[in-house]
Amino acid sequence: MPAGHGVRSQTRDLFARPFRKKGYIALSTYLRTYKIGGYVDVKVNGAVHKGMPHKFYHGRTGRVWNVTKRAIGVEVNKQVGNRIIRKWIHVRVEHVQPSRCAEEFKLRNVKNDQLKAEAKAKGEVISTKRQPEGPKPGFMVEGATLETVTPIPYDVVNDLKGDFRTFSALRVIFMGSSDSIFPSIFYHLLAPRVTWPQIGFLVKQTMIKMAKNWIGR
């Protein structure tokens, strides 16, 4: 037989009490004051089986709409299909606790009232709207030494994937030569998609013309 999916199925860890929080329930649980319209968190206490809500509502936050002798009426939103409906449930006091979701809002209201009272006493008008944090203020960097950086001239070695020493030697020969053929040869060497056979042919032709020039002298 397959495992059943009852009302409290798969809640062994969900409804388990916290570590070192087992035992008798604190008296403050029953002495809290809940008011209609307040926010509460539904947190199931596995030690109390009476008034236990369904596992869906565990960990949900809702508003109090009714207060009875031993239970609290909580209004919780539940998504059913493509709509969100409001569910009114009664939960025993052991399974609810005051929510802190509106704590920041209440503190901000108190702070805004204080700021408005101070501004009114000074005869000023202020805005209590929250503004996004702007950029950081500028500052001067002290104790820094300036250094002028010059970019390295483009080298065709990486594109040709050849021997650096061989290319450097050829470059020295071409740069040191006063032959009129140098500009065209170096232009072909720097041309994209140049192949090693083409470079060899150009070097050979250059050497021949340079030798003829030296012999003619």
UniProtKB/TrEMBL annotation:
UniProt keyword Ribosomal protein present: yes
Presence of keyword Ribonucleoprotein: yes
Entry GO MF terms: structural constituent of ribosome
GO cellular component: ribonucleoprotein complex; ribosome
UniProt cross-references to Gene3D superfamilies, sorted A to Z: 6.10.250.3260, Ribosomal protein L21
BP GO annotations: translation
Ranges annotated as spanning the membrane: none
Family of this protein: Belongs to the eukaryotic ribosomal protein eL21 family.
Name of the protein in its database record: 60S ribosomal protein L21
Organism encoding this protein: Gossypium anomalum
